[in-house]
Amino acid sequence: MAVLAIVHSYPYDAFFGGDGAYVQAFGQYLLRTGHEVHGLVSDMTRGRRNPIGRSVYEIEKYSSWQVRNSLRLNRRTFLAAEQLGPANLAGLLLGKRAAPAAGMTEQDFPAAEIRWVEERIEALGPDAVILFHDAVHFAPFLARNGHRIFSLVGHLKQRHGTSHRKPQRRADETAAGETGLVRSLKAADCVGLNSMDDVSYAHDRLGIKRVISLGMGYGAYRKQSDSDEPVVLFVGNATTPNHAALSWFLSEVWPSVRTACPTARFRAVGTAALAPEIASVDGFERVGPLPDLAPEYRRARLVVAPLVSGSAGVKVKVAEAMSYGRPLVTTSIGVDAGDANQLDEGAIVADGAADFARAVIALLSDADLRRRKSEGTARVFAELFSCDACYGPFLSWLGKDSRAAADRPSPALA
């Protein structure tokens, strides 16, 4: 089995969903398949005022979990002592957070932070280093020391460009047209992206030749019986895209659904539903966060992901709905732009409010349609969201020219 180090430059594991869920699903899978996995967080305070960082994931299962410039209070909680000044009291009391700085380059990281990462990697001596999101900018430094590097990025086109057209010249581009992000990605031995659209973009437009797709894998498919409750389910935490999705669905789609199906109920699970700007309407039930989502998926006839903002690509909520065997209605933002029909067997993709409402009404009222779509989710799950499908390409790369190749797990047995 391989020794692996996953490097973060921001504490994504402190928040449910999104990037944290994506990278933790990957890391926990590697642990379950017998690899020795170490986590490194090079800055727990970047973009945050709260000096206390508590992971919401089971980081205690990792072989080690190290956070720079912090004291470990318990198995999941760290304290950044230098952040304890009066100016940060509000952050401590309110848990204030912000997204990490966007568009960072290797020049934006302090020398002490780079040195900390280099020293920890040298001490661990891993078979491969996995650099996540902005941590990909450590690649040029680690490559000089001969380390094997896998750089993992979320939505590449969102960060570098918005279409397959070559991006306009930017201030941080070199004469050869390479941004800092592209330079750092080219320093890696392989780059992982979570959509085929981004894979094509990286290979064809940015000249990154060693690139694979790495989605978010789920360990099991949970077949569900049809629900006798006319429940439409939404799952999402408090993010700007989720707030926009809920607001649009409640104002533009839900009234038509309720007119056609007067007994229908819309249940919103997660912190997004608790935002004050989300209006209360008939049939809308704010559930809020729950420790176990399985009962909500069992009682739902269908799941919606009414995304109206953000970058295109399969989202965690979409993959999760498929893993529970529930038919889904989403917009094209919830689908990989490189494979627009990838969810068709288990979902309906509709962008306009009227089309979205018609799809929801059809699934609420037509048991045969629900059955066909539910059966289709099993095939979609196996092809797109199973651990074998999502992590197999990485395991194949890891096995090539690796000293861990002889005893690596077979993707078919994972």
Assembly level:
single chain
Question: CATH superfamily membership of the largest domain, which one?
Answer: Glycogen Phosphorylase B
Q: Please provide the ordered H/E string of secondary-structure elements.
A: EHEEEEEHHEHEHHEHEEHEEHEHEEHHH
Q: Which residues form runs of ≥5 with pLDDT under 50?
A: 96-101, 162-177, 403-414
How many angstroms separate the termini?
A: 13 Å
Q: Examine the secondary-structure arrangement and name the CATH architecture of the largest domain.
A: 3-Layer(aba) Sandwich
Number of strands: 16
Number of domains as seen in the coordinates: 2
CATH hierarchy, class of the largest domain: Alpha Beta
> Could you estimate the helical fraction of the residues in percent?
25-40%
- Tell me the major beta sheet: 7 strands, parallel
How confident overall, as mean pLDDT?
86
β content, as a range? 15-25%
Assign an overall shape. Answer: globular
Kindly report the CATH topology of the largest domain: Rossmann fold
**Structural class label:** alpha/beta
Task: Please give the radius of gyration in angstroms.
Answer: 22 Å
Describe the structure.
The protein has 414 residues and is an alpha/beta fold. It has 2 domains: 3-217 and 387-413, Glycogen Phosphorylase B (Rossmann fold); 231-385, Glycogen Phosphorylase B (Rossmann fold, 3-Layer(aba) Sandwich). 35% of the residues lie in helices and 16% in strands. It contains 13 helices and 16 strands. Strands 4-2-1-7-8-9-10 form a 7-stranded parallel beta sheet, with helices on both faces. Strands 13-12-11-14-15-16 form a 6-stranded parallel beta sheet, sandwiched between helices. A 3-stranded antiparallel beta sheet has the order 3-6-5, with no helix packed on it. Pfam families: Glyco_trans_1_4.
